[in-house]
Automatic annotation (TrEMBL):
<dbReference type="InterPro" id="IPR005883">
    <property type="entry name" value="PilM"/>
</dbReference>
<dbReference type="InterPro" id="IPR043129">
    <property type="entry name" value="ATPase_NBD"/>
</dbReference>
<dbReference type="Pfam" id="PF11104">
    <property type="entry name" value="PilM_2"/>
</dbReference>
<protein>
    <submittedName>
        <fullName>Type IV pilus assembly protein PilM</fullName>
    </submittedName>
</protein>
<dbReference type="InterPro" id="IPR050696">
    <property type="entry name" value="FtsA/MreB"/>
</dbReference>
Length: 342
């Protein structure tokens, strides 16, 4: 029973399926497409009929019957909670009774999951991940009416962590996921999502800054961004000067969240590494700039880090494009495990 992983944003959709074989995991299928403006706004589905029609045609053409869906982080609630004297078998019930303390919605209007980070002698540290029930039901309705049964849903950032943070990296890390319309910053400890925040600065912000400052079209601005990046050589200087306010703002946000975590977390620890993910994290010169300014190692995330491909196998989705699929890949890894149990 093939399960396809789906990531939807305000302007596009991506889908991907991984297939397990005796020799290793294969990339079975993937694709992406545009979503018209106004259909999804800030993660909320505003025009169900248009999205349903789009997905119905795709499901029919690709013979998709089962799906896994990522939910937008900007609509979620992530809370670190300490439970005292609660057995693991009673944690869900205990969290249900505490929901109103952590989520600004009536408990009946919330769906949630949780992860136990650590069990101490007299308490447990738990991460609560919650979403509005109405949001989840809208996604479930659209996918179901379009003709494919949703098998499970989870936070897009939980999926991203599964794909880009290597299994053997258990230290504290920060991930900066840079898409078309937004950037998500998240702190990960022992591969568990602990903190997340999203700001409305995306790749399009860079395109607009270049177009305005250099008096070129958006299409030309995108080409200049890809070619010149954030480099300070003479040839790239006009583009650098156009986008330096945007990149500086992103660096300041990263600093703010690192300092917040250091002052508010249990261990007062700073991240040991920063992983860059998302299509616009490919900006030339960005890793070097952030490493110098933040004082920690900065690397481009490998979305295939935890996918066990056969030896010498090269997936048809190239690395430069795969970074845009990190959420779908992480979701597909979970879907692959789900297929075994259905």
């Amino acid at each position: 029973m093939p399960i396809y992983a789906f990531e939807l944003s305000d302007k596009s959709y991506k889908y991907l399926r991984l297939k397990e074989t005796r020799g290793g995991v294969l990339l079975d299928d993937f694709g992406e497409g545009e979503i018209a403006a106004g259909v999804i706004e800030h993660g909320e589905i505003k025009k169900k009929d248009i999205l349903t029609a789009l997905l119905k045609e795709l499901f029919s053409r690709k013979n998709i019957h089962f799906t896994a869906i990522s939910l937008p982080e900007e609509k979620g609630f992530l809370e670190n909670i300490q439970l005292i004297g609660i057995k693991e078998s009673e944690m869900r019930q205990a969290l249900e009774l505490q929901l109103e303390e952590h989520v600004p919605l009536p408990p009946s209007e919330v769906i949630f999951d949780y992860v136990v980070v650590r069990n101490e002698k007299n308490h447990s540290d738990v991460v609560l991940n919650a979403f509005p029930r109405s949001l989840a039901e809208d996604y479930l309705e659209v996918f179901s009416v379009a003709g494919a049964s949703p098998t499970f849903m989870e936070s897009e950032l939980t999926a991203a962590v599964r794909s880009i943070v290597p299994l053997n990296f258990t230290s504290l890390a920060m991930v900066l996921d840079w898409g078309k319309t937004r950037i998500s910053f998240f702190i990960v400890e022992n591969r568990v999502l602990r903190f997340a925040s999203t700001i409305p600065i995306g790749g399009e912000t860079l395109d607009q800054a270049i177009a305005k400052n250099l008096n070129v079209s958006i299409e030309e601005a995108q080409k200049l961004k890809a070619k010149k990046g954030f480099l300070q050589d003479q040839d790239s200087l006009p583009v650098f000067q156009a986008i330096v306010p945007v990149v500086t703002a992103i660096r300041e946000e990263a600093e703010k969240y690192i300092n917040f975590w250091q002052t508010h977390s249990e261990n007062k620890e700073a991240p040991r590494k920063l992983f860059l993910s998302g299509g616009d994290a490919n900006l030339l010169g960005l890793p070097q700039y952030l490493e110098q300014e933040l004082g920690l190692p900065v690397v481009m995330a490998d979305p295939w880090a935890n996918v066990k491909f056969p030896k010498h196998y090269l997936p048809s989705l190239e690395f430069k494009d795969a970074v845009r699929f990190s959420i779908a890949i992480g979701l597909a890894l979970a879907a692959m495990d789900k297929e075994k149990n259905i």
